[in-house]
Each structure stands twice: as structure tokens, then as C-alpha cells.
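pinning this so it doesn't scroll away 📌
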Amino acid sequence: MDNTKARSSHMCEDRVLTCNVNITKVTEPWIHYTAQNFFPDELLHEIEKHFMNDKDYEPWTGYGNRMGKSIEMHSPLIYSYLCDTITPKFMGVCKDELLERNLPIDASKYDVFHAMYCIDGIGYSVPVHTDILQKCMTFIVYINGKGSCTSLLKTIGGKHFDRKIIPNSALVFVPQENTTYHTVIHNTQMRHTIQFTIQLKKD
């Protein structure tokens, strides 16, 4: 495992937000990254408020027991942080995986898509899949540290690689065809996550 302590500052609305995300590279069952302290405390407090009130949440994705709310629409400061701080930071972290897919290492060519507050209820699950290649990077940020983790597999039907969910930590990976298999097994607690992808800008 490689550990990287990434430190940067983000100015928005006359406030300086310091990013102290701690990134670890993991190679099994396939290359992915875990990130602790994903959001600064100031943003985390705002995020937690959005999960305390289920107003404006609607069914999200085609899977049952999941509700979502747009971050871009309801939290412009957090959305700006994802675009201006997280995107360029992980461009460098995931450079090799992006180059393997012949993707550019230039944050200006990407946008944050489908950034959502997600409330996953009891019984929520997702079948094994790899993510579509339209997604250049996938981010799953565990806010409350409860519920099922995202299980990683080397092959369909293979061994599940699980990790303990830590509040304000993230799973990050570059989707690869026939490689980045993952799933969510039957959720047993109310799970709060922020999920988003980074994709190439549309012409």
C-alpha cells in the first residue's frame, strides 16, 4: 500500500477550506484508492445537516431503498470543492489508471457528474458490475460509517474484498472493463453516502 498525505487549500465564497485527505493505494483485488478525511470539517457539518432532513430527496437509480438529492442544486460550495479541489488532486493520484484507458491527465477536460447525497435504506443492494466506461473516475464517500460497504471482486462470483467503513472516508477507482467488479450486499443499517463520477466534458 502507498500512503499519500495530500494538502491543499480551496477558496470559495471568501472562505479558505483546507484539504487534508489521506490517500492510500490498494492493489487487491484490483487497483483502487481509499481516502480518509475526505471533506474538511466545515463542509462535513453542512453535509450532515442535509442527511438530518430528508426534504428534497427522491428515488435515485433503479435500485430499491435508495433516495438521492443533487449536490450541485442544493450545495454549491460542496459541488465547487469536488470540482476545484478533489478533481485535480485525484487526476494525479490516478494518473496511471487514466493513461491505461488513454484518458487525458488534465482536470480542465473533466466535469463532476451525478454528485448526489444518497440515503440507502435497509435492504438496499446492488448486483455485481464494473461501472460503464463513460465514468472516468468513481467516488463513493461514506459519511456516517454505517451500513454495508462496497465489496470488490476480482471476478464475478469470486472472493469478496471488504473493508471497514470509516466515517468521512472514500473509495475511489477508475472503471476498467472486465476488471473493476464491485457490489453492495443487502444493507442492514441506514447508510449515508455521497456519490459522484468524473467524466469528460461534453462538447
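📌 and the second one:
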Amino acid sequence: MTIRNAEVGDLDAIADLAQDQRLRQQAWAPTFWALAPNAREVHPLFLRVTLGSGRSIALVASVAGREGGVTVACQIVDEQSTDFGIVIDDEDGVGVFHGRCD
């Protein structure tokens, strides 16, 4: 397994991992985890802005050259905010948490 900084070329693989998790969550609880019809399409756009902000870090884990997990996190500078953003996923569906990353 290798862990490295994510690059723009990883955005589609990251979005695919997140979409797989969305589909699993929707199967578990369809009302709570209702899937937005354009979630997969807009996620790379969000990631591009987040990664380009310079206020976040993204790591990709790969095995045998295939992305199997990702984490995206950022620190909020606002002293009154305790929100953070993180996305964690892997082939086995460890889970995804979306916080605020602005």
C-alpha cells in the first residue's frame, strides 16, 4: 500500500469512491441517505475548489496502482468555528463523513 498526496488526476477516482459509499448508504437508509441525482458529477468540482484552496490536504491510498481510499481534510481558521471536513472511504465501505471545509 502506498499513501501519497492527492493530485488533480485523482479527482475522478476519489469521486467514484465517494459515489460507491453514497450508494451503500442509500441502500441502508434510503430516506436519510437519499442520493442527489448529480452527486457524482458535482463532487469533482467541489474537490477541485477544496484542493485548490491551499487550506486542505488530501491523501490517496492505493494498492497495486488502484486507488482504494482517500481522506480530505482542512483546518478552519475561524476561531468561532469547530467544523471540519473529512471524507474517508475504502473498498469495504469504512464510511464517509462530510463536514464543512471553507
